[in-house]
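Dear support,

I submitted the protein below through the web form. The confirmation email said the job was done, but the results page showed an empty box. After a refresh the structure appeared. I'm attaching both so you can tell me whether what I see now is the final result or a partial one.
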Amino acid sequence: MLSNVKTFSATNIIIFITIIGYFIQNNIEHGAIIMGLNSLFLTYGFYWQPLTTMFTHGGLFHIAMNMFVLFQFGNLVEQAFGVKKFLIIYFVGGLLTSLFSFLYMYWFDSMSNLVGASGAISVIIGLIALKDQYQRKGMIIWILLISFAPLLLGLPVAWYAHLIGFGIGWILGYFI
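What the results page shows now:
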């Protein structure tokens, strides 16, 4: 099915822009802090952070894993729903995930620095879980694995962003 993916799909362009964002993040002083989502969002008015956090990552493995999953599921959703709906799902869902994750961090997580596209990608996974009953159990298991397995290995992961994104994708699915 992925053999039908166009080279210049919106998903692939987002992947390219995300790689550029990661390069920028690593070439400016404190790039992960400036572009990630953290207390600077409110304290100093860094209002771009809910968006730029989706283009910021915690390392090569992090961005490689996220872009691989985005390539798989993003292109499928884009083919199924069209470019316009895909962009709405990814960006509106990603921004909502960032904002709700910020609220979680503000109240419970002593304001860590949130980086990565996995919240927006989790929106896509939530949408698939709602729309495709055949894949639903697999998507739920997938979201639980990527949210909690890294914690068991002692790796820092914003599990709440994954679960929030999944829920937002599920809800958006009723309107798409």
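Response: this is the final, complete result; the empty box was a page-load delay. The radius of gyration is 15 Å.
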